Every structure is written in C-alpha cells, then in structure tokens.
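Sharing a chain and its predicted structure for anyone who wants a worked example. Both blocks are below, sequence first, tokens second.
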Amino acid sequence: MQEENNDIQEGSGLHEHYRFTAKDGQIPLRVDKFLMNFIENATRNKIQQAAKEGNILVNDVAVKSNHKVKPKDVVRVVLGYPPHENLLVAEDLPIHIVYEDDDVMVVNKEPGMVVHPGHGNYSGTLVNGLIHHIENLPKNSNERPGLVHRIDKDTSGLLVVAKTEKAMTHLSKQFFDKTTERLYYALVWGNVAEDSGTIEGHVGRSLKNRLQMSVFPDGEYGKKAITHYKVLERFTYVTLVQCKLETGRTHQIRAHFKHIGHTLFNDERYGGNQILKGTTFTKYKQFVDNCFKILPRQALHAKTLGFIHPTTNEFMQFNSEVPEDINACIEKWRRYASNSLLEE
C-alpha cells in the first residue's frame, strides 16, 4: 500500500493527502472502516464528514462512507489545502551532529524525535531542524529534504544526511545497492536459541493493522527483507542482540523479531510492552514494570553506520554510545539474571 502526496489536476484546488491501494486479498469493507485502519489518529466522524463533502475518492470517483472497498481499489483522500508535511517550517532545534562537511552530515538522533513531518507530527521533527541548520537541502524522491534513510521516532541512533544533490544520488544508490553498514542493538523478549542467525521474510503493511508491519514468508506481499543477528548477552528472560541490516524496510527489526517470537522489549506497537516471558510472581512483575519506566520506548538503537563518502570515495564508519535509558535497563536485567543464578 502506498501513501503519496500529490496535487490533483491543476486548477482543481484539491490536494491528495492519502492514497491507499487495497490488496488482492481485501474483503469488501466500508470505506470509512477501511480508512480507520490506515490513517493514524483519524476518527470515524471526520472520515464520514470528508465523504459527505466529496473528499474521499475510490478509483477517482467520490463515494459515500458506506461504499465497499474491494481488491485493487485505489482509495484517496483529497482536501482543499496542501498536506501539512508539505509546508515545512525551519525550527531551531537541538541536533546532535556527530560529523559534518560540505557534502554530508551524520546525526545521532535522540529517542522521541520524529525524523520527518507526517500525520500528527507537523513540527519539532529532525527535518524541521535540518532546514534551519542548512539552506537548500536537496530533496529525496519523497520530497523530503536531506533524508537518505530514516529511523523510527522512538529508535535512537545514527542517520546520514545528504547536503548536496550529488551526495543524495550517491548515498541513495549505496542504500539501494545494500553496500552501507548498519548495526543496531536491540533488547528482545525471550532467550534467543541460536547464538547467531538470519531472519528472512518479506515485510509489508499488516493487512489487519495499518500501524504495524507484518512478515509474509511466501513473498506475496511486502518487500524482501533480511536481518542478520548475533547474540551479545543473555539475561534469562530477555536477550541483547546485535542486528546487521542487509535491507532497510520500515520497522524491519521490530517486525522480524516479533515474527520469530522475540518481540522487542517495551515495543508498544508490537505488544512488547506486555510481560511476554518470565514468571508469574508479583515481585517479577514489579521488576519488569520498573524496567519499562526506565526505558519508556522500544529497546532499539542504531549504533553503527558506515558508507562511502560521495566525494572522497573513502569508507567512513561512525559509532554511537548506547543511550543511558537502554544502558540502565540492560544493567537492571544483568543484575536480575546474575541474582537468579545465585539463587539456583
């Protein structure tokens, strides 16, 4: 399913805010319910109002809210003003710059910062800060200034930003050709059986929940995704792993590890904010709740980033420290695991 933001016909005064293509397996579903599954923070009332005003199109025809969406239907929401994310405003935001020259910038993103504006997040994003810091950033194929790749809001760690058109083209090709180096640290639920391994399976939007990505092993949906992992440390009921991305799909690590039964610790969107492994003792429940408080986000950090510099052709590698919240949580689990061994 694709989301795009384009102007409709010139002079119509309408702008496309959302576009979704129903999958082959889509069961007939009212268009208001269909859109509820796919637009974050949308209310049924607002969707029905949009339909009443002729702003919901199925295959380019305005429909009522009870219209049934069928396989391969193209559903669009068009409104009389441009999407907020197209109205970028420069903001003086704190950005942790690890490296910068005339061509590239490497940023260590704080957890909680959204990378680019989108539905519900129109300011305070990394892009708002970047356009304040650098004038005339080149735009990628999605019209987003400087961005070659992205990481999720609650994931911390390293990102490279292109400052010139040449750098954008060069770096984008490296990501496409899978020649960049990206290592993540993740704390996952359960004792991962193998010391190392590879998770393969196409990653695409969940057919049940727009906000999640799912793994489709047969490759019928989604895009090919490969994650290599290595166990760094075991803590009885959770495991610290290093993940090496061969591909870079949305939520790839989060979806892949849930798929193999090891959801990321405190990953609310994928159910990792529940106690998925361990004992039923109240004392243990209290311990895990305290860990959730120390680390109020998914335990995922983009630790290492390597790429070939677009001008010098030199391979550059950057490493970042594991943030304090993840470190504190790991240390708490380390003590818990060692105490459990002493009690046995």
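Comments welcome. The longest helix spans residues 324-343.
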